[in-house]
Design brief:
With 568 residues, the chain is of the alpha/beta class. 36% of the residues lie in helices and 17% in strands.
């Protein structure tokens, strides 16, 4: 995750202080996504030349170009959390006073993991629609420009065509990739058939996935030769700016931007003033923000292949062939933490992002998970929002959906727990952790055994300890080793260990060299969040997710997979 500082002589504003009427100095640091950084730098230097000041104190601005994933990792590290897929940022990357990422989704993901991360402003200063980029001959073969295509059409191509070679930038590291993943999920809809279609689409995209955008762009045809076009990348969700920049290099086969319906969430370039910035710097940041609303900045954006937040473009914008004159306007994140973007992004929150990333992780990352299901008597309670079926039935449905999502690179085991399930033991192994490549049918059959024990209570503490030890004893490097436990109640097992004993044993077992992630999914309103958080806290990377409506546990399950604070 290299960080590239592109503007030498960053504090050039200070060279002019002696000639200005202001005194003193405020040094404002700005880190911006690579494509927008030059436009911000030009505008900042023009402001400085005009005597930028805050209440008579001179302002100088240093603008650096930083990959959003790199800066997100640095911000996460400052708050002692990690974001899935990012790892740790280099020590040389410092959190600035102002961060202009390419998308509000970075801010949402950070807020979900680090509640203390509360930047101010957050209003977009530019936008770039997310499109499907195709080499022009490929686009013409699917009906462009005469046929109006939608995300459902692309979904159908991904799941049925053997001719279309698709790819994307890893959505954990790239906002345009994440936007495309969200759009495909929306196109798939809900239900078992929809889930299968979504899994198929993700697998197709993952076949040519890249960690970096530049690497993905290199997979498009390098010549107009028909065989080269047929064997190169055919389609990928990218930003409009990516297509503009690619075509500016005059490649032998230009890219076409397909603006599919419904409009996905665009890149919206939020202007985020970081927490802990002092009042003087905050005022300077607000002053710079005002400069970024000028006509000259809009034209600088156009030169960089970007639109203004209202969707219009300044002079010099090299619009891709077939691009709309204006795209839907973007607006700021709301006070409730929900993001706005194009119409497709209205109401989006962090849990939706986590569910999409959870789907990606299940398909693309290798892992080992022991799934532990509560079968105590309370699991017979009906769920009004699921046509009155009981909690166990809803849980079986979520388990089937999750199992279908996991790629064959995963290994999965199934336990059930209540009280006296195996002699005096409150838990019972149904299937040991086994590779899905060889044991998928056996694991599918095991789900039918998630049947409540009418007189059973909840032996939560003993079960969690045993499950943790089981995964740790069989721990494998290079994989996510985890326990995911589903329960609808509190510990009720007079013959079992106490909470104090459980916490002490988990602390003693915790081994940084063999980290085991523990996730507890609470079902319904009978769980005690404080109890669950207490028993998860001693583990290396724990998480508690509550589904007050049991019908939503499938979504919560996906969110739990993607949200991995502290996970290795």
């Amino acid at each position: 995750m290299a960080v590239v500082v592109v503007f030498a002589g960053s504090y050039v504003g200070y060279q002019r202080l002696s000639d200005s009427k202001c005194t003193g100095s405020i040094r404002l640091t700005v880190a911006a996504a690579t494509e927008i950084a030059p436009a911000i730098e030009q505008t900042a230097q023009r402001w400085i030349q005009d005597g930028a000041n805050v209440n008579g104190t001179c302002v100088a601005v240093a603008v650096s170009s930083v990959n959003p994933a790199t800066m997100a990792a640095a911000v996460a590290s400052e708050h002692k959390v990690t974001l899935a897929g990012l790892g740790v940022a280099p020590e040389s990357v410092k959190v600035p006073d102002v961060w202009v990422a390419d998308s509000s989704t970075w801010l949402l993901r950070l807020k979900q993991e680090a509640p203390g991360f509360v930047p101010t402003d957050g209003k977009p200063i530019a936008q770039s629609p997310v499109v499907v980029a195709m080499p022009q001959p490929v686009a013409e073969s699917v009906g462009w420009p005469n046929k109006k295509l939608g995300w459902k059409d692309l979904l159908a191509q991904l799941t049925t065509s053997t001719q279309l070679r698709t790819g994307m930038v890893d959505p954990t590291r790239d906002a345009a990739g994440l936007s495309g993943l969200l759009a495909l999920g929306q196109a798939a809809g809900t239900g078992q058939q929809a889930q299968a279609a979504k899994v198929g689409a993700i697998k197709a995209l993952a076949n040519s996935a890249s960690a970096l955008r530049d690497d993905l762009l290199q997979k498009f045809p390098h010549s107009a030769d028909a065989n080269d076009i047929a064997t190169s990348l055919s389609a990928a969700p990218l930003s409009e700016e990516d297509v503009v920049a690619y075509n500016a290099e005059k490649p032998p086969v230009p890219l076409v931007a397909l603006y599919l319906d419904p409009t996905p969430m665009p890149l919206d370039y939020p202007y985020a003033i970081m927490p802990e910035v002092d009042l003087q710097k905050s005022a300077a940041a607000t002053g710079l923000r005002q400069q970024l609303q000028s006509a000259s900045f809009k034209n600088a954006l156009a030169t960089a292949g970007l639109r203004s937040p209202d969707g219009s473009a300044g002079s010099g914008f090299a619009a891709p062939l077939g691009a709309p004159d204006a795209s839907p306007a973007v607006s700021a994140s709301g006070k409730d933490g929900k993001s706005a973007g194009g119409s497709a992004a209205a109401g989006l929150d962090a849990s939706v992002l986590a569910q999409a990333l959870g789907s990606w992780a299940a398909v693309t990352l290798p892992g080992r998970v022991l799934a532990v299901f509560d079968v105590s008597g309370s699991m017979l309670e009906p769920v009004p929002t699921a046509a009155g079926v009981d909690r166990a039935t809803v849980t079986r449905g979520a388990a089937r959906g999750g199992l279908a999502l996991f790629d064959d690179k995963w290994a999965v085991g199934v336990w059930l727990f209540s009280t006296e399930m195996d002699g005096k033991k409150p838990y019972k192994q149904i299937v040991p952790i086994s590779p899905l490549s060889a044991s998928r049918q056996k694991l599918q059959d095991s789900i039918n055994k998630i049947v409540p024990k009418k007189t059973g209570d909840t032996g939560l503490y003993d079960t969690l300890l045993a499950a943790y030890q089981n995964v740790q004893n069989s721990w494998q490097p290079g994989k996510i080793n985890s326990v995911i436990l589903f329960t609808d109640g509190v510990n009720e097992n007079p013959d079992g260990i106490s909470q104090q004993t459980l916490v002490a044993k988990l602390k003693a077992l915790n081994d940084p060299k063999r980290p085991v992630r523990v996730v507890i999914v609470g079902i319904g309103t009978g769980v005690n969040r404080q109890e669950l958080e207490t028993i998860v806290k001693p583990t290396a990377a724990g998480g508690v997710f509550i589904a007050p409506d049991p019908a939503k546990i499938g979504d919560i399950f996906l969110e739990a997979i993607a949200t991995r604070t502290g996970a290795n």
